[in-house]
Design a protein that fits this description.
The structure is a single chain. This protein is α+β, with helices and mostly antiparallel strands. The chain folds into 2 domains: about 25-120, 2-Layer Sandwich (NE0471 N-terminal domain-like), CATH 3.30.2020; about 130-390, 4-Layer Sandwich (Double-stranded beta-helix). About 25% of the residues lie in helices and about 30% in strands. The strands form 7 sheets. The protein has a 6-stranded mixed sheet. Strands 10-20-13-18 form a 4-stranded antiparallel sheet. The longest helix is centred in the last third of the chain and has 16 residues, at about 315-330. It is elongated, with a radius of gyration of 25 Å. The two termini are about 25 Å apart. Bound molecules: fe (ii) ion (FE2).
């Protein structure tokens, strides 16, 4: 596997930088915990086992691979023998069984697991309705391609809003691939690498007709749908064909608050999705609104033309149709939609786990409409941002 070699192997064998915004003022050993008082008045409590497990000395963590070597189950339960602050502000520890560890203060603060610290590290989403039309982030193509700042702005907006517009690109086929590869690898799907969205005489997908497309997420029929869809406008002269976007998380949060039984059903009930043609038959099953262990929404699967017949207990059929109807009607509410017409040379990016996309019908006899799209995984986008943040 290709791995970027560390430029600098510091005490934590970690390539990310952890600026020290708060110094360690005091440390005490209490009940086999290191109690750290920070210069901003915060306090952290670190378990001996957690500290021993995360020791980054070259014995415990491989100095080139930067991966953990220490296997905590192979050692007796560690006891903290001493704690003190080192000359450079690090935390210095000794353990029984005998071992010495050094923790960088910035790393320690960044990994503190007290509730206040975990809350500090959360990256809030900005949920939106139609008001986003007034402050959608628009990044200039040249800034995006040539400056780190442009790329950081684009990725940050995508992570916060799930929707970002790129403007001013050369309106030519294939340009989308250059744009995507500025961020990371394109994901290969049943649509290939780059797919064309044009009206075709023999379409194998609804997108390749002039029909309107209801709001949807892409590839709901995959176990792990791609996290990002890019759509580049090569030409958009036909009458109609405006793009529509909806924040499925925002609408789901409205449901959670106002129709909790509907929300609850959409988080528990399994839905089946399927795409098939001559070359594939791809199916996935999952809740429409997927929650993480903290009860936060982490993914929405919503795609009417890929939705299969319900395969659920008889008693669930009617309430499930009701729940789907309630969610869908809210999504169709203009107040929950951002609408825009993609000009030639513009590209929209949507966070496909969250933001739905759709379009109005268009009349192919009034002009040429040609979009190119591709899909990516969000892992690469987040990774790209972390690399930029190292600088
Ligand atoms: Fe789509």
């Amino acid at each position: 596997m290709n791995q970027i070699r560390p430029k600098r192997v510091d005490t934590m064998l970690d390539l990310a930088s952890y600026p020290i915004k708060h110094r360690i003022e005091r440390v005490a050993l209490v009940n086999n915990h290191a109690i750290v008082d920070w210069s901003d008045g915060r306090q952290s409590r670190f378990h001996a086992l957690w500290l021993r497990d995360n020791c980054a000395c070259p014995t415990c963590r491989h100095p080139q691979a930067l991966e953990r070597r220490h296997i905590f189950i192979d050692e007796a339960e560690p006891r903290l023998a001493s704690v003190k602050i080192g000359a450079t502000g690090d935390l210095l520890l000794t353990f029984e069984p005998i071992h010495e560890s050094r923790f960088d203060a910035g790393w320690l603060r960044h990994h503190c697991y007290q509730d206040w610290a975990r809350a500090e590290r959360r990256q809030p989403l900005r949920l939106w309705g139609s008001e986003l039309e007034q402050h959608l982030t628009i990044v200039n193509y040249a800034d995006f391609m040539e400056t780190d700042r442009g790329l950081v702005t684009w990725i940050s907006a995508l992570m916060r809003d799930g929707l970002v517009l790129l403007d001013g690109a050369p309106a030519r086929t294939g340009e989308i691939q250059r744009i995507a590869e500025r961020v990371g690898p394109i994901r290969y799907t049943n649509f290939g690498v780059i797919f064309d969205v044009v009206s075709r005489p023999n379409p194998n997908a609804s997108a390749d007709t002039p029909m309107g497309l209801e709001l949807h997420t892409d590839l709901a029929n995959w176990d792990h749908p791609p996290g990002i869809q890019l759509l580049f406008s090569v030409s958009n002269d036909a009458v109609g064909g405006d793009s529509v976007y909806g924040d499925s998380f925002k609408v789901a949060e409205d449901l959670r608050r106002e129709e909790p039984e509907v929300f609850d059903r959409l988080t528990r009930q399994q839905f089946d999705f399927r795409f098939h043609d001559d070359s594939c038959d791809l199916r996935a099953r999952g809740p429409m609104i997927q929650l993480n262990a903290d009860g936060e929404i982490e993914r929405v699967r919503f795609n009417n033309w890929l939705r299969s017949a319900f395969d659920i207990p008889e008693s669930e059929i009617e309430p499930t149709y009701h729940a789907l109807r309630r969610y869908w009607l809210r999504l169709r509410d203009r107040r929950n939609q951002v609408r825009l017409k993609l000009k030639a040379g513009q590209m929209i990016a949507v966070a496909n786990a969250r933001v739905m996309h759709g379009r109005d019908p268009f009349d192919p006899n009034t002009g040429y409409r040609h979009m190119q799209g591709c899909l990516m995984d969000m892992d690469w986008v987040r990774s790209r941002l972390r690399l930029l943040e190292r600088e």
